[in-house]
Amino acid sequence: MIGIIGGGQLAKMMAQEARKLGFGIAVLDPQEKCPVCGLADVKITGSFMDGEKIRNLAEISDVLTYDIEHINVEVLKELEEEGYPVYPSPKILEIIQDKLVQMETMKKAGVPIPKFIRADRDELTEKAIEFGVPLVQKTRRGGYDGKGVAVIRTEKELDKLLPTDSMLQEFVEIEKEIAVMVARDQDGNIEVYPVVEMVFNEANILDFLVAPARIDEDIAREAQDIAVKVVEALDGVGIFGIEMFLSKDGTVLLNEVAPRPHNSGHYTIEACMTSQFEQHIRAITGLPLGNSELLVPAVMFNVLGEGYGRPKVLGMKEALRYPGVYVHIYGKPVVRPLRKMGHVTVVNKDLGKALEVAQKVKRIIKVVGDDP
Amino acid sequence: MIGIIGGGQLAKMMAQEARKLGFGIAVLDPQEKCPVCGLADVKITGSFMDGEKIRNLAEISDVLTYDIEHINVEVLKELEEEGYPVYPSPKILEIIQDKLVQMETMKKAGVPIPKFIRADRDELTEKAIEFGVPLVQKTRRGGYDGKGVAVIRTEKELDKLLPTDSMLQEFVEIEKEIAVMVARDQDGNIEVYPVVEMVFNEANILDFLVAPARIDEDIAREAQDIAVKVVEALDGVGIFGIEMFLSKDGTVLLNEVAPRPHNSGHYTIEACMTSQFEQHIRAITGLPLGNSELLVPAVMFNVLGEGYGRPKVLGMKEALRYPGVYVHIYGKPVVRPLRKMGHVTVVNKDLGKALEVAQKVKRIIKVVGDDP
User: Fold this and answer.
1) Which of A110, B73, B311, B319 is deepest in the core (most CB within 10 A)?
2) Which class would CATH give B115-170?
3) What is the ipTM of this complex?
4) Is B312 on the interface with A (CB under 8 A)?
5) So where does ATP get bound (chains A, B) (predicted)?
6) How open is the CA angle A262-B343-B361, to the nearest 5 degrees?
7) Domain B2-86's class?
């Protein structure tokens, strides 16, 4: 039995691979009806912070993992010390949860990162002036999907600083945002996925994920090397999403580490020999890793919720008329605007054609709420 | 909500695709713990023959389908007449369930089939002598996986005739057994999969399924045409497995029709653009079909149970060390000798290498019972 803390779409896709390999699934999630609930053998309803519920999950599971980072690390550390296998290790989670500690750890490991300093809440403005604008503020804890980040372009914008313990990072002129998934097993063997490229829209929301990234081979190799270095520095077991910047001057810099399957790795389900989810399940259960080779180029986009209420999928029939289109609807019980309700992967031997189809299908398929 | 009668491995793999597309799953199965039970939103425990339970399933489902042929057709016909969508139509099931009617229907449709005659229980011997040996007896009802079939080579073997209403078929000298999966949607659009080849061992148990079949292109096209003709003759909606013989004199003849996902189509999960299971779900829910193109050659074998008791999977770790190996364990609660407990698909750009790896992995991976 594999115990998963968090019952969202990442857990759902993990569970599907785990079931294929014959494993049972137990899940802890606060929602009565979560995407993975219909696939779980055992459902425990409770908060990700509830130590007792996490212990209940551990007792019925052979191994614990998670699909979300904001969970009770203390209890997981206790469990790990008591001998319960928890992958990736809660020690990694502790590092990742605090962006300052994450960057300090990476700096120590020799990973190229943007310049940064620590700036506690009571000294934010002084530190910002000292560090110099333009800069990017990242709150140490709690940020995700662009939350907890402020961009300060000039000293006039210093009043936009978020009033919380933070780190301040140099503002990098970005050519492209790229990412690499890395899997590492319990013996330290590694499988690296190709470099992918994230294309954002004006509102800084991911528009398309393009695999492979349209970058030079040398830069791709450099990004893969950095991603491996990150996971090795963390002594990570499982799958990791490593987000990086390719700066305008051609440097690759680490942006952020996700110690779990990642949105930028969804394309692996259809486009790679082994999906990020199967790879994760293999790693945490002590099985050897699969081949991470890209079989066919792919473009992925998220299907974001529109409106509120119970979800209704529109355009499925029209969308599926295009060849190479794979629709994943997560089965979340309610819609909220911009909530990730599903994703679509388009594969095509010709990456340009995949992108063309993805652009068309993105305008067609919608998940809208029934509450007007 | 998709209602599935039968909760075995075929239903499990259907359910996984259905969930991906965002559909709910209800299942009727006599076992408390069936492979699909952990994935279903609603589980009804009852016999496949229990009309009331089938009606209960229909009431909570938007469409009914099945993963097994020996079910209560009468109730399904009533439901269809009352306007409940049932795919494939129970009328097809009625034809398929009786091998004599199946062959008569195919003959009428102009599908090439082995010569056959009807032989009722009380006239078996006379009919067999009249028809001439060697011959193959097939019982009209209840046969599967080689059961309900007797091969009579000489008149001396006439005492081996199974004492039940049957059809007698000419004994075809077989070069290869081949199969084609065909999907047909509610508008009559068709997607045909490549021809695959079934390699049997001495005990007449499927050893390996080889995709694509190692046959001439002309013969492959002929087999695909026959498969399409069969499904059109049945006015089928859903996925169909069409088993055929390639005789020693180069003729392609229909052997048997399965109105559901089929063992010989498991390779499509990893090797084709759209799996047989996704194709079935698309067809029965009114969605357009996907592309059935083969992306990479594949070899599949069934993992058959050894012994009795609760299943234990052996050799998984060693098996997964080989590249391109996909293991599917069905999650059946108990093992029986020769019971299908899972399957393995091996993909490789070089079909010969896929076969080599499959042969190795087949010796490694086992599902054994814990009851000595």
Assistant:
1) B311
2) alpha beta
3) 0.86
4) no
5) 99, 138, 169-172, 177, 255-256
6) 90
7) alpha beta
